[in-house]
Amino acid sequence: MSAGTHKPVGTGLVKWIDTRLPVFSYLQKEYAEFESPKNFNWFWNFGAILTFMLVLMILTGIFLAMQYQPNTGLAFDSVERIMRDVNFGWLLRYLHANGASFFFIAVYIHIFRGMYYGSYKAPRELMWILGVVILLLMMATAFMGYVLPWGQMSFWGATVITQLFSAIPLVGDLIVTLLWGGFSVDNPTLNRFFALHYLFPFLIFAVVALHVVALHTTGSNNPIGVDPKGPQDTVKFHPFYTVKDSFGLAVFVTIFAAVVFFAPNYFGEPENYLEAAPLNTPAAIVPEWYFLPFFAILRSINFDIWFIEAKLGGVLAMFGAIFVLFVLPWLDRSPVRSGRFRPLFKWFFLIWLLDCVVLGWVGARAPDAKVIEGVEWLKVIHIGYLSTFWYFFHFIILLPLLGIFERPKPLPKSISEPVLGGGTAAAGAASKPMEKM
Amino acid sequence: MSDHTHDHDGHSGDRRDFLYLTAGAFGAVGMGAALWPFIHSMNPSADVLALGSIEVDVSQVEVGQRITVKWQGKPVFIDRRPEKAITEARETPLSDLRDPQTDEERASRPEWLVVIGVCTHLGCVPLGQKASEDRGEWGGWFCPCHGSHYDTSGRIRKGPAPLNLPVPPVEFLSDNQIKIG
Fold it and tell me: Cα torsion for A15, A21, A24, A25, to the nearest 10°?
């Protein structure tokens, strides 16, 4: 790049800076003039909502870290001190704890949006893969963060989840010892979880940056999955989507605030208000709601599969449930992106979505519990078998087959066509006056 | 902007300017209100404030003896002054002092001087709590960091420090019980 190609924006100090460091022309190009499809629906708000939540989590986390003590002797009491003695400590902690739940609510909606509208298909495969990496990092961060208050669920959750790695043949136990820094979850474990819990959000931030670079390279997908054909199909990001994103964010944050102020322990587990007791396991160990479907898959593989023992099988299935998302762009063979034009996929997607909810329901219950009172033979584990099977069946069998056998509905020629009922040229002419408004 | 600074009724200014300004002001107030809990969380918490006062039993302190207690994380010098030290402190003319203050203002009970043992120059702890230590030219305290001399009332007499050693809030609960803070 030669020095002459950069045209600085602004006047005065802004121009002086932009001549030397193109921050303002970058913002202008990527966030003001950036052309986005004009037909986004409300599901396209969640990128902005997630950005806000990430910043809020980092901010509340840094201020909590100023008060928190990562030591098994002090951790639990330091959290109680945050709740009682630190100015607005209760607010910081409730924002952070419930923020994790709302972060996952937003990220799951964002993922489901991408799945329904085929946002993972070419040329957006890498953007999707980066998104799955973000999801994995979020899960690791959330898990380690939950250990920090050093309550009963913190301790036993950490014990159980780290022991998942003991299922790995030959080196499993060595890995678990390495994770713990000892022979049980103890002070070294708490120390390193705190260090990593502080680090990972910044890794997430970096991967989010790559995710956004990819987005701004390929452009956004849209509800009909047809690429914009020209300026008549797009609007400038500012003010159209800055305003729409702000409104959606305000609605989301209102609901979030309602939980933080009126039901701050709704998502929490009462058991975690008891200090960790390494000699006394609680009656039932239940993960946070956002891990329940994966927990259900883990428990549903309670039988050996050929030479794979049940323990390893469960762990592989649980991680496989996320890793299958990495290859989703190649499992779905259909050339049509949006579920709107895929009459079979549309229903199978909804069934899969329901299946995820069922898995969550299974994860929250004891495997041997009865599903319906009085029906002895039907246990929760049976629903777990079925829903785990369907989860993988959808990805590995159904999606590739649908790509071959499904007959999609005819696609609109452009984004403008379904709105204005005309061709691209007519739509272009019709939309011109609108941009003047 | 310049072509519509007057609307069709001839009002100067612009509806849009007004909206920008009010929206901006509203945003700034909201941002400030949102940031306040974060900033305030760094201020002293309730458990720190609860340590705002201490009670000291001085029944074991002999005349001429000085003890150090910790209050709000800082050393507090308690000096049971002999008659000579009191006389010197009370007879010093205010014109000799850099930070003029009478000994009566500083020690309500002449025998007991209570000062915060932090040099007002740059925060070192002055010497002089033990008889063996250098007490400076006025027999009070001497700061080894940059050579400030304090008299028997803890007032600055020589050296770079600008102010006297501060007197914390002191209350005599009984003859042997001092409440500091």
Answer: 90
- For residue B46, list chain A residues with Cβ-Cβ distance below 8 A: 84-87
Question: What does the block give as tokens for A350?
Answer: 């909804």
Out of A25, A244, A300, A332, pick the active-site residue.
A244
Asked if B47's CB is within 8 angstroms of A92's CB, the reply is no
Contact A190, A75 (CB under 8 A): yes
Q: Is A380 on the interface with B (CB under 8 A)?
A: no
pLDDT, mean over chain A: 92
pLDDT band with cut points at 50, 70 and 90 for residue A425: very low
The minimum CA-CA distance between A87 and chain B, rounded to whole Å, is: 5
CA distances for B32 relative to A58, B25, B38, B177, angstroms: 18, 11, 10, 46
Look up residue A129 and give its two tokens: 């893969």
In order, the DSSP letters of A285-340 are ----GGGHHHHHHHHH--S-BTTB-HHHHHHHHHHHHHHHHHTHHHH---S---GG
**How far, in Å, CA of A343 to CA of A283, rounded?**
46
Q: One-letter amino acid identity for A304?
A: D
Measured in Å, how far apart are chain A's first and last C-alpha atoms?
37
> What ipTM did this prediction achieve?
0.83
Buried b (16+ CB within 10 A) or exposed e, A289-318: bbbbbbbbbbbbbeeeeeebeebbbbbbbb
β-bridge partners, A36: A235
> Which of A282, A357, A28, A294 is CA-nearest to residue A164?
A294
Distance CA B139, CA B136 (A): 6
Catalytic site residue A238? no
Any CB–CB contact under 8 A between A92 and chain B?
A: yes
User: Catalytic residue at B149?
Assistant: no
Q: Residue A345: phi, psi to the nearest 5?
A: -55, -40
How far apart are the C-alpha atoms of A428 and A435, rounded to whole Å?
A: 11
| Burial profile B65-77: b = 16 or more Cβ within 10 angstroms, e = fewer | bbeebebbeeebb
SS3 sequence of A197-230: HHHHHHHHHHHHHHHHHHHHHHCCCCCCCCCCCC
Residues A113 and A118: their CA atoms lie apart, in Å, by 8
Helix (H), strand (E) at residue A345 = helix A343-363
H helix count then E strand count, chain B: 4, 9
Tell if the CB–CB gap between A81 and B38 is shorter than 8 Å: no
Residue with the two structure tokens 């708000």 = A45
B32 to chain A, closest Cα gap in Å: 15
Report chain B's terminal Cα–Cα distance, integer Å.
61
Instruction: Tell me which chain A residues have a C-beta less than 8 angstroms from the C-beta of B36.
Output: 88
Cα A151 from Cα A185, distance rounded (Å) = 13
Place of tokens 């790695």: A165
Please tell me the pTM assigned to this model. 0.86
**Is the Cβ pair A92, B42 closer than 8 Å?**
no
pLDDT at A283 over 50: yes
- pLDDT, one tens digit per residue, over B60-101 is 999 999 999 999 889 999 999 999 999 999 999 998 899 999
Closest partner CB to A88 (pick from B40, B47, B48): B40
Residue B25: other Cβ atoms inside 10 A: 10
How far apart CA A157 and CA A162 sit, in angstroms, is: 8
CB proximity A59 to B under 8 Å:
yes
